[in-house]
Write a sequence for this structure.
């Protein structure tokens, strides 16, 4: 299966099974499309009819090179992964925990999927003992995995800061004892950032996620305190100082866009203009009848914005002031293996969320939904059937995905979004799927254009992130 | 007529498990994570 599209004047073919990307001229993309069935005479006749200016030799050379790509498995590759990958359910090795250290928040963002941090329950802070048990649980269930991840999440995790610090210290002690590496991460709204927090995080946190929605009026529309006051002016200077000391790496400015700011690229650019270079802007996750929800009618504008973002990134790259956008970071040469592309994020098996009182859920988005409770730190997994459902929820389980060109880029999408949209973890959140495919088209075009620009020596700036570097080989026809 | 093929990882060349796609968004899922090995 191939997917062809034209964006920014570039004619691009994505080979679905091999995940190979080919950039052609207009005739080339037609040749690839017409020659998919391998009928050389028919493809030649069709190309001659459409492009009478092409010589027989040009067409013959082109089709021969397509034959070569076909033989190399880079075009029209056979999708036989379901038959060659292990069919047994994955071993339930745990490698990542989302620690809900605070089910309480000092902001009251109305679009928050966590219900202002309480997850439809009571306010709570995780005691140190529960966090310690969680790290012990992670080590005990991690098998041979060396890299272990722990995200301090909420609510607002800085409202339980002493416990966070003690748990990091405990994790560091476990590293030496068990030959593990803990990658601690933190997601914060920034309201409690001070010098001590900044210095500790810059020393201990592998990554920090800083919540900022962009322009002041956009940010303050939803991100207000319990008295309804906007938080932009309070958090932006703190974030800027945080990132300045951090050295522009190991962080993401993470924004949410909604139906109310469909021109969200202006918010991304605003963050870039504030001096941030690692940016993420996500569509809101909320009930379809919520006034802030992204609708089908919104998609043409959102698609246009994603294209505008890619073009603006190219422009700023040429100007020597690049920034990275999380969803456009597609490392073609060193991206995930096919096992990861089939299995997905690992929610419910490799990745679990832990509540302040030690209950286990498949991920942070399921916390508070009793039907998705997997067990607890003390009891272990008490609902193995549910865990098995998550273990089997790979890309092959999504019937709607089987004929999709992007299935090995998204792995079937987010189980939580699917469950909340369709009632099934193996369903498909259709709007999210459409947005993902558009982002992938833009991301691949961006990689190709950056490489082309470097080849033409149009830019001499160093990429903001090495993931933007892709190698290229050319088949001239 | 020309075709440029961006060098991509050989998918057929079918799992060490060493980042959970924890990194940035928390609400929109895999391909954005580089391979550790």
């Amino acid at each position: 299966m191939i997917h062809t599209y034209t964006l920014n004047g570039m004619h691009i073919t994505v080979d679905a099974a091999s995940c190979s990307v080919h950039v052609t001229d207009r005739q080339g993309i037609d040749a690839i499309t017409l020659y998919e069935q391998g009928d050389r005479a028919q493809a030649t006749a069709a190309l001659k009819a459409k492009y009478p200016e092409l010589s027989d030799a040009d067409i013959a050379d082109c089709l021969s090179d397509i034959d070569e790509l076909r033989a190399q498995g880079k075009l029209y590759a056979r999708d036989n992964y379901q038959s060659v990958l292990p069919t047994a359910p994955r071993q339930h090795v745990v490698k990542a925990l989302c620690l809900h250290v605070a089910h309480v928040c000092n902001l009251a963002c109305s679009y928050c999927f966590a219900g202002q941090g309480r997850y439809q329950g009571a306010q709570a802070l995780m005691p140190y003992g529960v966090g310690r048990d969680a790290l012990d649980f992670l080590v005990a269930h991690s098998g041979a995995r060396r890299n272990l991840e722990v995200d301090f999440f909420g609510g607002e995790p800085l409202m339980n800061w002493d416990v966070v610090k003690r748990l990091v210290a405990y994790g560091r002690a476990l590293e030496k004892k068990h030959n593990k590496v803990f990658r601690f991460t933190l997601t914060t709204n920034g309201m409690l950032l001070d010098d001590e927090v900044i210095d500790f995080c810059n020393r201990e946190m592998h990554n920090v996620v800083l919540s900022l929605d962009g322009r002041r009026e956009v940010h303050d529309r939803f991100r207000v305190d319990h008295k309804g006051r906007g938080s932009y002016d309070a958090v932006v200077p703190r974030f800027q100082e945080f990132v300045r000391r951090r050295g522009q790496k190991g962080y993401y400015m993470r924004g949410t866009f909604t139906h109310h700011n469909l021109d969200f690229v202006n918010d991304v650019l605003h963050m870039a203009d504030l001096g941030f270079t690692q940016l993420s802007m996500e569509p809101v996750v909320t009930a379809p009848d919520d006034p802030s929800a992204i609708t089908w009618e919104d998609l043409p504008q959102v698609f246009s914005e994603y294209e505008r973002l890619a073009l603006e990134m190219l422009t700023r790259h040429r100007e020597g002031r690049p920034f990275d956008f999380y969803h456009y970071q597609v490392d073609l040469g060193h991206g995930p293996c096919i096992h990861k592309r089939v299995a997905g994020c690992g929610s419910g098996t490799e990745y679990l969320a832990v509540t302040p009182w030690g209950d286990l859920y498949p991920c942070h988005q399921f916390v508070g939904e009793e039907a998705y409770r997997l067990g607890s730190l003390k009891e272990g997994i008490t609902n193995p059937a549910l865990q098995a459902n998550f273990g089997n929820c790979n890309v092959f389980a999504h019937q709607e995905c089987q004929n999709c060109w992007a299935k090995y880029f998204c792995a079937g999408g987010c189980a939580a979004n699917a469950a909340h949209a369709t009632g099934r973890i193996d369903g498909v959140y259709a709007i999210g799927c459409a947005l993902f495919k558009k982002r992938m088209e833009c991301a691949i075009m961006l990689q190709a254009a950056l490489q082309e620009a470097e080849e033409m020596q149009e830019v001499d700036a160093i990429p903001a992130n090495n993931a933007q570097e892709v190698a290229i080989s050319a088949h001239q026809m | 007529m020309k075709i440029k093929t961006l060098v991509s990882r050989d998918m057929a060349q079918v799992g060490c498990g060493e980042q959970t796609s924890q990194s940035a968004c928390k609400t929109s899922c895999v391909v954005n994570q580089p391979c550790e090995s």
User: Anything to note?
Assistant: Chain A touches chain B through 94 residues (CB under 8 Å). The longest strand of chain A covers residues 181-188. Residues 1-79 of chain A form one domain. The mean pLDDT of chain A is 90.
